[in-house]
Structures are given as C-alpha cells and as structure tokens.
Amino acid sequence: MSGAPPFDPKEFRKALGSFATGVTIITTRAPDGAPVGLTVNSFNSVSLNPPMVLWSLAETSLSLPAFRAAAHWAVHVLAADQDDLSQRFARRGEDKFAGLELDDGAGGIPLLRGCSARFQCRTAFQYDGGDHVIFVGEVLDFDRAETAPLVFHGGRYAHAAPRAAAEAKPRQPYLAGSFTEDFVGYLLGRSHFQFFRQIRPHLRDEGLDDEEFYVLATLTLKRIMSAQELDAAMAGILDERSAETLHSLAERGLVCQAPVVAEVPGPEYQLTERGRSCALRVISAAKAVESGLLERLGATEATLLKSLLNRLLGAIDPAADTLWGDRAPNEAARR
Ligand SMILES: Cc1cc2nc3c(=O)[nH]c(=O)nc-3n(C[C@H](O)[C@H](O)[C@H](O)COP(=O)(O)O)c2cc1C
C-alpha cells in the first residue's frame, strides 16, 4: 500500500471519530526506568483465550522507543471523571506522572489509580500498521471497578448512559396541552418537590424553615453576603425577604454581621460557628438522601444527570455561577 489516500484526510478523521470509544492510558517503563505513558483510544480486545488486547501507537510518538523496548505495559480504562488525566497524558513528552500516586505492576510498570479497569500485559507481538505500530499484549492480570467510563466521540469527551429496555412514553393527559412527562418544567418541578420533601424533616429537626435553609446553604457557597446580594441570588425563591430571614437566623446565633468594610455600604453577613455546623449537618443529611436516590439510577446515569442539570442551569441561570467563592476585592480590604 502506498500513496496519498483518494479522499480528504480531515473527513476521514471525522468519519473515524463517529466510532464512539472509551479512553485509555497506556503506561510502561523506559529502559532507563523512567515512567512513560500516553492517552490512547485505539485499544481493543483481541482474544478471550488466551486473553489478548491491542492498541496502536503513532510512529511520531515520543513514547515509541520505550514501548518498542518494553516487555510489559498496562492499559488503564479511564473513568468518567478522569478527563483531566486523559488530557495530561495526551500532551507530548512532559513529565506526565508528576504528583500521581502509582501502584507497581508486572515488570515494575507504573499503574495509575481510580480507573474503571486496568490490564497488565506482556508484549506478545508488534506489527507495523501504516503510520502506527500495533502492539498486541497477553493479559497477565487485571482489576476493575464499578465506575462510569469516560467516552470519546466526535473528537470530544462524552458520557455513556445505558438505555432503558423500553423508553417510557409520556402519558396522554385528559386535557390536551397540559403538563406531561415530556415537559421539562413538570419533571424538574416534581423532582425538586419530591426531593425536598425527604430533606425537610432534617430541616425541621434543626428548627429551620425552607427559606432559612436556603440562606444558610448559600452562605456555605459564598462566605459573606449582604441582604441585597442574597435577594439577587435568591430571586424567585425568597421574594426579597432575605433581610427578614437573616434577622431571624442572627437572633438564633446562626449568622452574624461580617466585619465592616469601607467600600461596602450596607451590613454583610456570614455564618457563625454554630451556623456552619448546623448547615453542615443538614447538608450531610441531604447528601445521604441524594446518594440513596442516585444509587437507584446507577453511577453512569447519576453522572450524566448532574452534567445535564449543570448545563441546563448554566443556560437558564448564568447568575448561579456568581454564587461560588469569595469576592476578592472585599476580602483584600478585610485583611
Ligand atoms: C482521546 C485520545 C485518544 C488518543 N489515541 C491515540 C492512539 O490511539 N494512538 C496514539 O498514538 N495517540 C493517540 N492519542 C494522541 C496521544 O495521546 C498524543 O499524541 C500524546 O501527546 C503522545 O505523547 P508522546 O509523544 O509523549 O508519546 C490520543 C489522544 C486523545 C486525546
């Protein structure tokens, strides 16, 4: 085979990218003992008995000499939350292992942690394949975890979510045009109210009403806020009653006024030690309710749900972003 392909290489790449894959990092040790690794999605299974896998490495890769010489290498199937690690190992040459905790694998190869699966392999064959070298390995050992996998499709990281055997069809309401399970507002609203119903008993145990909880929870996101800022952040939730709510929390010693700063006109508030502990107790109870619910969905769908809700929130309420973190200028003035 020789010569340029009879089609546009960019289109060819795009067409290949329509094949959704997982993402792996392959590691080994260079003859001088240095750890070597790179991100790879050309990984595939070859044989069950004997257990064999393959992947292909570009001839331009700086890792090529190390893999050519290696008797062992390891394949790490990345979990959904390891996209940063994938990016790190997709960079050329640099010290990709800096600061990572490693396990020791067959032949002393470095093993990464937190992956969906790891296969330790002995090099069985190497074949030339165009501008890549194909490595086939015999699997000596493996381990795996029940985590959602990282997916690569169309040049981007993606989520894998199992499909229900039969997708539920929205039911027909007796009044045409009324809310159905096809209406996001219905799904969000009902989910919110049912979720909150399970958290409310914990709030009541702490003597908090819903609004007081919203204010406490917001002050755990952004350490210091004025009533006006809270009103803006809670638009549509507190109906400009933040001052009232802050007052009642202050009376119970759960919030207090923050030290005064010249540039800030009105009073600002922060959690007291008691307020912080109270908020943390409720938040951990809420987390327990959350994990019970998400367990029923499974890890993959839970990750997907959070990602989609975050995207929806970003589109519907860009102000939600401003709730996070301290305001730097005022903080500086306070010190
Ligand atoms: C999702 C993804 C999949 C990749 N798959 C491969 C692959 O299968 N083979 C390959 O040689 N490079 C692949 N790469 C590119 C290498 O990770 C990248 O070229 C890396 O910089 C090589 O490092 P090195 O030059 O230090 O060996 C992939 C990159 C990404 C982000």
List keywords for this structure.
37% helix; 7-stranded antiparallel beta sheet; Pnp Oxidase, Chain A; 335 residues; alpha+beta; disordered C terminus; 15 strands; Arc Repressor Mutant, subunit A; elongated; 3-stranded antiparallel beta sheet; binds flavin mononucleotide; 10 helices; 2 domains
How does this model look, in words?
The protein is an alpha+beta fold and 335 residues long. The protein has 2 domains: 151 residues, Electron Transport, Fmn-binding Protein, Chain A (Pnp Oxidase, Chain A), CATH 2.30.110.10; 151 residues, Orthogonal Bundle (Arc Repressor Mutant, subunit A), CATH 1.10.10. Strands 3-2-6-9-10-5-4 form a 7-stranded antiparallel β-sheet. The protein has a 3-stranded antiparallel β-sheet with strand order 1-11-12. It has a 3-stranded antiparallel β-sheet with strand order 13-15-14. Helix 4 crosses helix 8 and helix 5 packs across helix 8. The C terminus is likely disordered. The site of flavin mononucleotide (FMN) has 18 residues, from strand 3 and strand 5.
